[in-house]
Predict the 3D structure of the following.
Amino acid sequence: MARNTFERSRCLRDTIFAMQMEGRALSKHTAAELIHCDKRTAERVLAHLWLEKLIRIVSWDKIYNNTTPIYRWGQGKDAPRPPPMDPAEKTRKHRAKPGVMEKQNFAKRAKRMVGKEVRLGVFGI
């Protein structure tokens, strides 16, 4: 048996055990931490279980700037995937963070001052 096949079968067994016995909802990140495997392997295992209709998507979470499904054991209707944010909404959300506009304004000011330091006598020349 190939190493990858063995690893996936071990991860599959451990994932099923964690979801059935503990009743936990898992994302690929929590599954990878729980069963000690790579996140991509955990994602493949969860996708395999989902295609077999053994697990369902109960919600979607924004993890690491990506929308990630949260799975739970059992059959049922999957939660709908949220629509992606449009660029204007992303910009508004980014600018609402404290300190972002000050940093951007400082960078613009610094860019305007390039080459003017000598003429303005900033360096005492």
